[in-house]
Automatic annotation (TrEMBL):
Gene: mtnA
Pathway(s) of this molecule: Amino-acid biosynthesis; L-methionine biosynthesis via salvage pathway; L-methionine from S-methyl-5-thio-alpha-D-ribose 1-phosphate: step 1/6
Taxonomy of the source species: Bacteria, Bacillati, Bacillota, Bacilli, Bacillales
Active site: D244 (proton donor)
Organism encoding this protein: Mesobacillus zeae
Protein name per its UniProtKB record: Methylthioribose-1-phosphate isomerase
Entry's EC annotation: 5.3.1.23
Amino acid sequence: MEKPVEAIQSVRLDDDRDMLILLDQTLLPNEKKFLELKELKDIWDAIYLLKVRGAPAIGIAAAYGVYLGTKKSEADAYESLYADFKKAKEYLASSRPTAVNLFWALDRMDARFKKEEGKTAGEVKLALKEEAELIRAEDEKVCESIGQYALSLLEPGWGILTHCNAGTIATAKYGTALAPIYLGQEKGYDFKVFADETRPLLQGARLTAWELQEAGVDVTLICDNMASIVMKEGKVQAVLVGCDRVAANGDTANKIGTSGVAILAKHYGVPFYVCAPLSTVDLKCKTGEDIHIELRPSEEITTQWYEKPMGPKDVKTYNPAFDVTDHKLIAGIVTENGIAYAPFTESLPKMFK
Ligand code: MRU
């Protein structure tokens, strides 16, 4: 049987046409449209406007973007080509601050550039393309492995609550938090998934509910403020979420609202698991205090998804896109190399070995 997630590839390179092809995630679930982007400015906009979103997918898009930006350069000496690469890298790095995968992918492209020192411009460009393709291909394997480890924590028939979208369209394939659900689906685990709608940009409603439904998974859409009642009613046996950055002590930044879900899960005795590719673990951040939380425009709360304004004109808003879940609320962090348990300062570094 074809795996249900194989159909959707949200980020890919069309090298022959010098284009980044992106599934426009802002149009889902109403329209499945692929954008064809050539200009760095359009790629920057696509990341900022969440046309491509989800930490791993942002990293992959940035890797392809910096490759395409460098490919265009007319510089023929290694040093001048590097200057153009650096400009493109810094520009793309300014698109969103929280998901560390963006910086991780760009740094990895940088390291590859430096490894090619002394090569011709053509050879360096080919190496960059190879590296970007590797980043994408590796993410596919990483997600599958996270899915296997996470599945070992779950039992058939369980109710699983998730927040935001950490699914196939947020990664190269399979997703992180949704990977065990897809793998379980293939094994007949019959999970019942509760998808928080995820205000204000509704990634849970528009994306998670959509992609799980497309894959034939039993999914129930709830508003964010209903997480408590479904837990209280015993409908949820585990919470699985993705993440944008994990600090060395296990504090985890993920979509706004995640920390509230973790607090509820603790109250109701439901295990709360974070699914984190190692590209999302940032040991340079000691705690969640070191993670830069992105603030986004008011319109996302008041008007963006509505025909009429949903708040009085000029009302003050506060719109942080992420929050940090305290490591004490996290039962385990599932990586591609195994599951890290508290104390995370000791278990997370071991995952890299
Ligand atoms: O603002 P977004 O939609 O990019 O936020 C995405 C999330 O918070 C996801 O949970 C996270 O990036 C993990 S995706 C595998």
